[in-house]
Specification:
The chain has helices spanning 57-71, 81-89; strands at 9-14, 19-24, 27-37, 40-48, 75-78. By secondary structure, it is an alpha+beta fold. It has a 5-stranded mixed beta sheet with strand order 1-2-3-4-5. The N and C termini lie far apart (37 Å).
């Protein structure tokens, strides 16, 4: 487990797992689960794994996930409190919100 700021960070969509994953130096550091719905993704849970907290990885994960949602022409329903708060704090993503 990492206890330093990872040098290589990547966010990938893992549709089989129905989640976006953030990899830090090649190791799973966290994920944002979603349920696909017509025209949108419902974000249900975000988790940073032990040893990776406190480096801003969850925010990077959600930013990259929402950027992907936008690129794909979808909307996002933020059921997860972390995703909802992220969007409130970053109004440039407010146009992506589709309520249930």
């Amino acid at each position: 487990m990492a206890n330093h700021l990872p040098e290589n960070v990547a966010v990938v969509d893992s549709p089989d797992e129905q989640r976006y994953e953030i990899l830090a130096d090649g190791e799973l550091a966290g994920f944002a689960e979603y349920r696909p719905r017509p025209g949108r993704l419902v974000f249900t849970h975000t988790e940073t794994l032990p040893g990776f907290e406190g480096h801003g990885l969850a925010s990077r994960l959600i930013r990259d996930a929402l950027d992907d949602v936008r690129r794909r022409g979808l909307k996002a329903t933020p059921v997860c409190p972390f995703v909802r708060r992220f969007i409130e704090d970053h109004p440039e993503y407010a146009d992506l919100v589709a309520e249930q």
